[in-house]
Structure formats: structure tokens, C-alpha cells
Queue: 4 jobs
Job 1
Amino acid sequence: MNQRTTRPPEAILAAIREVEQEAPGGAEALFMAAMLAPSPLPYDFALSVEGTPHNPSLINPAAAFFAATATMDPLVTRELVEADPDERTYAVFPEVREVLLGSLSDEDRLEWAGRAVYGLNLVLPDAEPEQWPVVEWLMPHIHACRELVSTLGLNSPAANRVLHQAGFSLYHQGRHRESAELLDMALAVDVALKGKGHPDIAEDLEGLGTVLWAAGDLPRAEAAFAGCLELQKEIFTQDNAVTAPILNSLAVVRQALGRFELAEESFLDCLRVLTSTHGEGHPVIASCLNNLALLYEAMGRPADALRLAERSLEINRAHYGETHPEVAADLNTLALLCDALGDTEGAEARFRESLAVRRAAFGPDHPETAQSLCNLALFLDGAGRTDEAVPLYEEGLNAYEAALGPAHPLMESALDNYLKLLERTGGRPRSDRLRALAEATLREIVGRAE
């Protein structure tokens, strides 16, 4: 960067006023950028000014290049911004930002904040995983938007979308707590704009609940889903199908919180709504039955759970055929329930059938196949057939490693169980790769204990 002249605030302000008179588009680009973070912005942000002829949506790409140059040149020549024509970005110099912001009244600050967030909204892509690099690059400005909403009360549709899309972009990256913070504020903006009873608020609460659930904040997830359900009941007809997914999510979260009776109530409500909408034999009924079966298992009611799981399997077989992944999942659930009820013969048969379906559906090197192999191995080990269990477990570990890699969290727990199997048999891993993985796991366990 070239050496810049140190100027007093009066000289900087005079340069800003010159741009306002001679190049209004450049002045707007400057004022908008100053409201956001001290980080580069794309030229498209400078051109995304509502109602002006230099909006790139109104002109072709070649014209957009010249429009950007015309917008930036008055700012660059007066040393108000640093521009990178190759990257097509610009940033306001810190001292210029300070002088400009200090010159604004509260009313002007709010107006320019609204325009800045409007421009940010136009350059922010939708929350698709492949768009993450762009969202990550814009993240300083997204947090600046959040600050403007918090400090200035900037409640606008543009602010809502920026926070909403950025929140779900973070969710797709597994950054759930950061996601929830942005979605919380997006919800507050939406409520300020539309009121608490708007249908969009129900959707906001559902999304927030899903993210909080993923973040492990189960009490707040329950509150979000319960609020969503309450609002849905006010907006829609009784037992409307739209409530079923929320009832299911609410039930699962309540089960995780140990609130079994409330979870059962929500699952039964979900089952009633789904049956009323789809009839007795629809796959969504099977899914709800399976979830309720898992709840009954957790409540110590394996016989009730088995009855529901058998009905779920019956529905899915009739709808999908014998070799569908949903059938395999049902068979796995039934195997676990049979084992809990002491029906070892029935449990083994269903474990093996589930494995056969997953092998046919997914192939040998898939996490689902690996899970079935390890489940069968653990069952055989529990039945005192450890020598039969070890090769199946090794096959499952090989499948996990091929599908997920050796560093995946599932590999650690699977290796722990494998080491316990080997301890009972007095054996060693039969492949060099498994031996290396097992030894690495042992070293890590010892290291954690020290």
C-alpha cells in the first residue's frame, strides 16, 4: 500500500463532502461500508444500492465493471478507501471511518445502517453448504449487522434475512451455538416486524429449536418447539398435519430430558395427527411408532415397545419391500428389544436380517453396514460367543474406517469395544492396520488417564 498523508479530521470531512457533491454513488458506497466491519467488502456491495442506476441487476457484467470503477475512483483518489481491483474489494480507512461516523446524527446513523444491511443482504448467498466460503468471508459484516440490530434497534427484512441465512450457514458447519445466537436475534427482528402471531414466527421457532437441539441445549430447544406448537394451534385447524413434525421433535427432546410422560403424550398426539391425515399404513406412521417404541424401551416397557416396533416393520415392508434401509432400521430395533426380553434366538435372527438388508442396500463399506456388524458382534459377545464376535467386529471396524476414516468419533467408541473383546479372548488384531489403530487408541486412553 502506498504511503498515505496524515490528515486532520477537517480535511477528511472535506474530502467526504466533495465526493457527496461530485459522485453520490461513491458517497453511498463509503457511508454504507463505514457502518459495517473494518474488513473488505465486494464491489457488488457498493453497486447494490436500492433504486439507483448503478445496480448491477440492471446492467450487463461489462457495464458493471465500469460502474464499479466510476464508483471507486473518487474514493480512492481522495484516499478514503483502499481498493483492490484484482479482488474487486474495497475497505474504508480506519481514520476515515472514525471521522465519518462521528459526523452522523443518530437519525442519519440509523438510515445508513439500514442501507448498509440492505446491501449486505444482497451480496449474502443463501445458506447452502457450498456457499460457506463466501459467508465466512462476510462474517465480520454479519456480526456488525447483529450489533446494529442490538444497539440501534435496526429491525428490517434485510437484517432478518442476513441473520437467518448466516445462522443456518453456521448450522451446516456444525457451529450450533453461534448459529443459535444469530437465529435468536433473527427471531426477535421477525417478531418486531410481524408480531408474535405471524406464521413466519412458528417457522422461526422450529428452526431455532432444531439448532438448539443440535447444540445440546435441550431445555431451550423444548421451549422453542413448545412455543412453535402453541402458535401453530392458534393459526391452523385442529390436528393439522403441519403440527406433526413439531410434536415429534418435542417428544424426542422431552425424552432426552427424561420427561418421559410428556414425551409419550407428544408422541401419541403426533400419531393421532398422522393417522388422521395419512391413514394407518403410511411410512410416516411407522417412523412415529418406531420413535414411540424407543421411548417405551427407555421407560422399561419392552413388551409395549416390541408391539409398536413390529407394527412399524409391517408398515415399512408393505410400503418399501424387503430390502429398504427403513426395514433394516426396524429390524435392528426389534433385535435390541428381543434381546432385552430375553428372546436371544429372535434377537440374533433380526440382527442378521438387518445386516443382510444393509449390505444389499449400502454395500460393505458403509457406516450403516458397519453398525449392523458391530451390533451383531456385541450381541454374540454378550451371549458368550466371543470367538464368533471378534471377526464380525473387525469387519465392522474395517467398514467404519473405509467410510469415515480412522479419526472419526465413531471409530473411538468402536475401537474401545473391540479392545474389550480382545481382552476376553486373549487375542490380538488379525490385521496390521487394526493393530495400529488399537495401539493408538490404547496410547490415547493411557494419556488421558495420566
Job 2
Amino acid sequence: MQNDKTTLKDLSIFPSDGSEGVFGLIDRTATQAGRAALKKHILHPPGTYEQLIAMQETIRFWHNNHDLWPTNILNGTIVMLEKFYESADTVSVPPGGFAKLLGTLLQKVFNNKEYKFARFSMSHLSDMLNGCSQLAAIPEQREVPALLLRELETIKNELQHRLIEPIMTISDHTRYSDLIQLQYGARRELKNAIHRLIASYARIDAWQSMAKATAEHGWAFPTITAETPVSINAEGLYHPLLSTPITYDISFDEKKNFLLLTGANMSGKTTFLRALGVNSLLAHLGMGVAASRMQTSFMHGIITNMHAEDNILKGESYFFAEVQRMKQIAARLSKQRPHLALMDELFKGTNVHDACECTKAVVEGLMNHPNHIMMLSTHLYEVAQQFKEDSRVVFSHFVTNISEDGNYTFTYKLKEGISNDRIGYLILQQEGVIAMLGNK
């Protein structure tokens, strides 16, 4: 799956403007290295259906077997090892006889700084290797999915070095002379192996993080099907960043693959599009989704058009930015590989007549691409009316309750059909703008 920066920003995946974003909901990593691996996984989700199924199986394993996760590898462990190996190239000769002859007590007195560093760094190295050894032993205890098994076998192979076992048995009672010999050997012979172990551990840390977040939030693992026929079905779907979310039930397939969503301003259209986009991404990461049940065919990407930005330095207007984003969407959808396209209130940067005509033209063009799931929200009632007889289009709307005295309330519930609610003037009036300007 390929998702560009604009899509990730539209869906609030990464922290911004004081919010932790969706990333904050799924980051349960034990280390910064794992956190970096998790971010990389989000930026580059599995590229094929087979890879996604393998990833989901691995995350399911950790979801069901989190008691096997080693707790002795902390973020400080990896930070310390990185510092330890930064200085490795400065040590060119083994420790001399004088260092060996000095007892532990004398080392504390005459060479306290080096003594503490040796003890501290080697204890962290011992913790790292013991934690990796616990991971490597998992296949002996449980049946392990293929993707995880390959990673664990990689770790097991790295642990075959002659120095591994004596380093793993280091304790407070280890003689200093033995300790510095092991330290020298670890610096000279294990540097590359330790970096590879850290990389393997970081990937597994990212996988267990998604499993832990899935369990913590009570999310459900979705059913992933092959990319064709294209389909998305969900019950109880909601936006995971909302504290009191409204749930949605949706259904799309290759015969009804286009949703035209109507409703008044602030009625919930954008939130719905984001909820579907976020959960589709979570599904394609291999983890659980914020829904009671979800099935989705494999998508090669999510692409959004929600918040275009003008560029004053390039002399590009807001409308031109919208057109350029729509051009990018058209290029992606011209390919046969299925995508999820989410478009929110197109062409806001021009007058109502132009916006209506441009939106109609876009919808007509999108109908020529049945291999994708596409959704467009609009408050232009005329656009929905033009396509109401097209069997390929699903019409849904958000209801606004308007009383006789002009008050309005939102239900935020998704219903079938087309809305012609218009409350822009009522909002302007209720917020006191009309009165402040002295309008009669």
C-alpha cells in the first residue's frame, strides 16, 4: 500500500498541532528503535496481499501471546549499546596486564570512571542478549507464524558467537579482569552482530506494539480478502481519535463502489471519511481496527483530497492547489490496482456554479474507474440530484434537525438518501455575526 504525505496529514496519522495523532494510539513500543520501526511500517505498509496476511498473522500472535515479550530490554539498553559501540574503534589493543592484576576494589579506587562504564555497558549488553535469547526460544514453546519465525531465526543465528554465552552470564560477581576481556571482545567482534540484533528487535517491537494497542483499545482484527473483487464492509466503524464516537455501518462492492455523501456543514461528513480512511490504513498495517467487524479487499493505496493549501511563493491559488490534487488522484485511479479515494467538498476555492460544474465533471470521470472504492462528500445538493438514478452510486447523508424557531442539532448518524439541509445562514445568525454587523 502506498500513501503520500498529504493523505497521512489529512487523516491525522502523525502528531501535529499538539495532538499525538493516530500514531499516539498505536505506539506501545518499548524502545525508540521500535518507535522508528513502527513509523517506517506506517510509511511503508505491506505491498502485497500475501505480505499483509503474513503481517496480520504475526500481529495476531503477539496479541494472543504478549506474555512471551521480554521485559529486560529497555530503551536505555539500546541507547547505552549505541554509545558503547560509538567508542569501539578507539580501542585498538586488548587490556594490559596491569589492568588484569588490579582487583575489583583497586579498580574502583584508581580507575573508577572506566570501572563504572565497563560494568554498566556490559550489564546492558547482557540484558540485550538475554532478551534476544528469550525471543529466539519462542518457537520451542509456541507455533509461530512464518514472518515472525524468520525474524526469530535471524536472531538465533546471531547468538551463535562464542562470546554470547559468557556475556549473558555477567553478574555483579563477575571479576573485573574477566569483564574487561569480554568488553574488548564485544567491541572487536560483536559490533555488527549487535546492530543487526537491534534492527531485528526493533521490527518485532513495532509488531508487538500494534498487537498491544489492538488489545488495549478492544479493536477487532479485520478480514482481508484479495484485491479483486473490490469491497469494503464494516459494522460499528468509528473514528478512534474521538472520545465519544458515533458508529457507522457501510457496504461497498464492485457494483456499488461510489458513495456520494451529502449533509449540512458540520453534520459529520469529514469525520466519516476520516474514520474510514484511518481504519483502512490500520487494516493494511495488519493490526486491529476501530469497528465491531470489518472486511476489506487489499488496497494498493489510500488517497485523499480534503485540505488543499495554496502556495503564495509559487503564485498558486487555493483552487489551483485543489485541481493539482485532483490531478494526482486521477493519475492514481487511472491504474487498475484498487485504491480507496476520499474526497471532501471539492473546489471550495471557486464560486458555487463553477464548483458544481467541476464536481459533476469529476464524478462522471470517476465512474469510468470501477476497480476502486471512491467517496465524495458535498453540500451541493444539485450534484447528488444529477446522479440519483445511477445504480453504481450509493447515496448517504447526515441528518440535521431544524426546529421551527431556527435552532438546529446534529445527529451525526449516517442514513441512506440525499440531504438538502442548508444551515449556513442559521449558523452565521446564531453565532451573532449578523447582529454584530448591524444587519437589519
Job 3
Amino acid sequence: MEPTTHAPATPGFSRCALAGLLLAAAGIPASLLADFSWESTVGIDLAWSPAHVATYLAVALAGALALGALTRQGGGVRLGKWHAPLGAWVVLWGAVAFVGAVVFDRWWQAGYGLAAGIWHPPQILKAVAFFAVLAGVWLAAAPRRATAFAAAGGLLLAMIAVCTLVAAYPNRQHAATFYQLACGTYPVVLTALAAAGARRFSATAAALIYTGLTGAAVWLLPLIPAQPQVAPIYHALDHLMPPPFPLLLVLPALAVDALLRVCPGRAHAGRQAVECGLAFFLVFTLVQWPFAQFLLTPAADGWFFAGGGRHWPFFLKIDPRAQVMFWPAPGDEINLRSGLVAAALAVLAARTGLWIGAWMKRLQR
């Protein structure tokens, strides 16, 4: 009688480790929002500022938990003598890339100064590292609990919002670039969540996680006393400046869930991409356009919405009239041509998300 052989067990994360990964992943966009607020209020970009330290700790925790998932034997993805879930390898790559980006950034600032631009090469490498860590956590959550999968997707939405924050000020939300940027990014995550999530409303849950995390920054950061410490000072504050209010992604996410999970059809993936992309474009535009108008009115000038055109970085010189108006740019108006471009980007993003979702479902098996 031949001995029975068993396939090697697939290594994975325990519930506690997965919870730790989600905590670390949440710390990345949360600390970056705090960093934005710190630099907009205080203005001194220290390597060991509280926000930066929080980012270091979040990446270190994610990297340590991913490192703990390595085993000498078992299933998963093999690299040399080590085996680990795919998500762990992606998280580790992101953590190593972040360390390299921090060293690169110190060198860059020493050579070019702080006025080298927002998206200089070290910052781009940092953004790639952050997305890698968050994507790795998302992959680690995929074969586990549905709630963790939706939460990790919501953190990815928050990371997209952080990277596009400057373009998402309410004053810019009647420009074609804003809608094209949103349509080309958010549907990727939302459709992947709806396609691969175990629950009917995975995309909606993720959008709520994004809203809660970003909203918490809007409501809590102004409770911390702070003041500008460098000149010039055009908008003196005595507390940290809140970031812009979160985008209304919940309604387009609900539309995507409805198309893919609540009332699913047997349509081809291409047709599903068209339906989801157009649904995102139409719903997002219809709700965000009037909401942007509201955010520039005195009715939004309160602790909850933090709008009314009152919150600006201390170093930004801006006419008081421009603070409460939209900033039109030649060639950046919403018209038939720019709207079609935004809709096409949403369809392409949805198709990418559907492909990612299908791949993640195969990965779970």
C-alpha cells in the first residue's frame, strides 16, 4: 500500500496578523492626511515629525507582519528557500521600496531643497511603495474574511484620494480634469471589490470605510493646536488645517454593486465594464457636481463639512473671492468632448477592475 501524500498547506495570516495588517494599512493614508495638515499649518517638513513617525511605524508594522508569514516549507509563493502568501511578498516589497524612497528623499532634499516640487522622484517612489503595501494587504485579506477584504479596498480608495488630494479641492470640482482623474482611478478598486467580494455590497462597504477614514481626519485634526512656524504667513491658524471633505463615492459604489451583485446578469465582461463605467461616471457627476457647489457656500463652513472656502495652507496667497468660487481653466471645462473622455476612462478603469476581480477569485481557489 502506497503512503498517502498530502499537498503542502498554504501559508496564511492568522486573524490577529490580518487585523494587524489592516491597522498598519489604515495608518498609511491616515498619517499622510495628518502630514498634509501638518505641512499646511506648521510648514516644517521634519524627518521625525509626528505624522512622518506614524507613517514609518505603519510601514514597519506591515513589513514585520509580512516577514512573520515566511516559512521554510508549505504552499504559497516560493522565493528561494522561503514560502509565503503572495500578499506578504507584495507587502515586503513595498516596505523595502519605502525605505529606499526615504533615503532617496533625504538625499534629494539635501541637493535640491524643499521647493523641488510635490511629485519629485522620491515622492513618486514613496507613492508606489504605499500602494504596494496596501495592495499586499488587500491580497492577504482576499482569501480570508469578506469584511477584511472590503476594509482593505476602502483603504486603497483612501490612498487614491490622498494622492489626488490637491486636484480634489471643491474649487476644482467643476473641471474636466477632476472628473477624468476620478473616473480613471476609483472604478478600478470598486469594480474589483464588487466582482471578487463575498458580500453583495463589498464596493459600498469599502466606500464607507474610505468616507469614515477621511472624514475622521476632517473632524479630528482641527482639535490639535498648531501654528505656522515659517514665513510667509497668509492664513494663520491656531489648529491643524482639515483636509477637504471626502468625495461622495458611496452612491456610485452602490450603483456598481447593484449592477454586478444585486441584479447580476450573464453579460460579457466587456458589456459589464461599459455598464459599470457609465454608471460610475453618471452617478458620481450627478452627486459631486452640486455637492461641490454646496461646499463653497457659508452653509458648509462648519466643523462637519469644513468648507465654505475658509481652510487653506498658510503659505498660499489667494484672493478672498477666489476662495469661494470655482477655478475655471481654459480647455478644462466640462463639455461633450471632455465628458466622453471621462466616461471612456471610467469604462477602461471598470474593465481593469473586473479583470483584477476575476484574477483574485481564481487566486482564492
Job 4
Amino acid sequence: MNSIRLFLVTTILALVTLFVFVSALRGYQSSMLQAEQLFDSQLQVTAKLMANVHSANPDTSIKLNDKLAFQVWHDKKLMARSANAPTDPIALQQPGFGYHNFAGYRWRTISYFSDNNWIMLAERSDIRFSLAENVVTKSLLPTLIGLPVLGLLIWLIVSGGMRPLRNLAKELSGKQADDLRPLSTVLPKQELAQIITSTNGLLQRLESSLQREKQFASDAAHELRTPISSLKIQLHNMAQELASQDSSVNQITQTANQLEHVVEQILALYRSSPDHYNAQFSPLDLTAVAQDIIAEEYSSFERKDQTIELQGDGQIILGERFSLETLIHNLLSNANKYTPEGGQILVSVSREGNAILLRVEDSGPGIAEDQTQRIFQRFYRVGGDRHQSGEPGCGLGLAIVKRVAELYHATVDVGPSVFSSGCAFTLRFHAPSPSQLEQL
């Protein structure tokens, strides 16, 4: 906005300055022409007055100011002259104006014939130019002094004219990601009315699209969960009826469980989208939330004979429980999948300056450095869809972790773990200030 205002003010001021310069140039030329005519007229009048001067002594000189000089000639004889005039003729013995150099100056001369005498009068040219320049300078000086004032006035006028655009930009920048309310149309400028109308139409279409998407997600959750639950019940009943374990039934059951997991992960990814996240944050003990998730998922670690440990004391952050539970659950699920049987998992919560760190480390195979950024992409799995761990997955867990971290303006780093092998996921949250905690 400031760049537009600066461009307009600079352009207008430059055009005004150019106009003033051209006007001054034309005014100077006109003033010089008029001054030349005025001085010539005055010089002619003075020459006529000098025609009354008679002297028989050619050495007689009359003292005038140094700006004027004159001679009186009768034929080839100098009858009179001023003290600063030479003894040689300062003009031709023919009527009219001319120029002559003497006494270190250039002079404007006139020859006037009267009573058999030639009156030759000269006036210094530099005096004429000096007087004309003074007139032009004095006329331009107020304009030059007024240019900064004019620039300030232009700045204020442009700023006032751009106020509606500035208010529109402020309103747009103040909108949250999920704020699709129409823009204000209170007394908009005619040029902005169309922009506001078009923007409001776009926001309305976008809101309708998001509402349809939200409704689709809700319907899809219901329609997908119901048949999956029915399928699992039927598979359970089928397994009970069969005398022995049928491998095909177990494979179908695993596929149904994986399908249910994919549906839940997709819904969790949708809920964690910043465009649809409207939860109000409140103080939460991150260590306590991690402890609850470990207790809920402990059977998964016990089944693979894995050792899981939680370190750290209570650390308060501003958050929402469901999103934090989803984040920690996906980190622990990832560690459980890729840590071999009998492996180790370490969860730690600590404070470092103004940041609270959540670290989940495992003794698995680790992640190559060139893949540490790709693992957060949707549906990407290290080693392909069939990982060496043999664990089912859809490649959405770490994408959800990244999305939730963005909700909290937290960073996610991947590096080596404290064990001989494996990797560590470190999330760095902003620690709330005492004033923020007091307001909640």
C-alpha cells in the first residue's frame, strides 16, 4: 500500500515539477525578450535627451555611472563623451541598435542622428541579464519553496483517497483462515464496490464448497464406518463358527482393520486442517496427555515385547486435547510399527528456554537423511507400501503430525535417537507466558 502511495505522490510531484520548469523556461525567455524591448526603449529615450548636449572641447568628459556610456560625434570629430567611454566610436554612424565590446564588458549600443551630430549611447548587457534573471528568480522562488508543501498536500490527498483501499486490505489481512464472512460494504468507493462484490461472491462460493465438503466428510464417515463394523462382526462370527482358524478369514479381518484405520486417519486429517479447526485452546499438561496415550496403547507395545519409557515433569502448553492426543498417538503408532520386537521407545517432555519439547525416540532402523522431509507427505511410506516391518499402514500418520504441528505453530525435526539405531521426532511448542495463562 505504501509503495502505491509513494509511486502516486512521486509521479504527481515529478509532473508538477516538470510543468513548473517548462513554465519557468518559457517565462524566462519571455521576460528576457520583454526586458530587452524595455531597456532598448529606455536607451532610445536617453539618446534623444543626450542630443541636446553640445561641446566644442573633445577632451571634455562627463562622469556617469559605470552602467552607461555615451559619445557625441560631428562627422569624424568627437564632440563629447562620458568618462568611461573610449575615444574610438562605440557604434556605427547609422541609426539603430547594436553591440560593442570595451572596458571589459559587452555593451548594448544605439546610434541616433540629430542636428548633424551622432549620439552614441551604450548600456552594459550583463546588467540587463542580471535584472531579468532577478525578476524570473523572484517569481520562481515561491514556487520552488512551495514544492515541499505541495508534496505534503499531495501525500495527504492521496492517503485520504486510498483510505478505502487501505481499510479493505486491513480487513482482508485480519481474516482468519476459517473466516468466510462477507466483506464490509459501508460507503465503499465506486471503484472498490465491484471488487468487494466479486470478493464476497467468491467467499460465498468458497463457503458453500467447504460446507459441501464438510457434509461429505460427515456422511462418508457414517457410511464407511457402518459397513466396516458390520463386516468385522460377520468376520468375528464366521471365525467362531469355523472349527479351526482359517487363514483367509484372518487375512480378511486384517484387511478390514486396515480399512477402518485408513478411514479414521482420513477423518483425523480432515479435523486437523487449519481451515476447519475452530477449537479454543486451553492450558494442558503435555506430559499428562502423553502418559494417558501410552496407557491406552500399552497393549500394542506389550504385544511386540517393546519397552516404552516416559521422562519429564509437567509442562503446560495452550492446546486442545483431541488434536494433541491425535498427534501423540500417531507418533507412538509410528514408533511401534518400525521398532522391532524387544526394541526400546523413549518419550520425553522438557523445557528449553521459551520452548517446550516433545521427543519420541525409538531403536528402529532409522530414516535416511534424504527422506526426512518426504515422510511428512501424504501416503508416503519409507520403503514403499510394503515396508520391511510388515506392519499395515496408509502413510497418513506423519502427515497428520505435521498438520497438527502447524495448528500449534510448532516445528517438527527428525534426527538420530539416543539408541544405537533409530530416529527421534522432536516437536518444539511455544511455551505460554504467565499473562496468557492468567487470561484463560
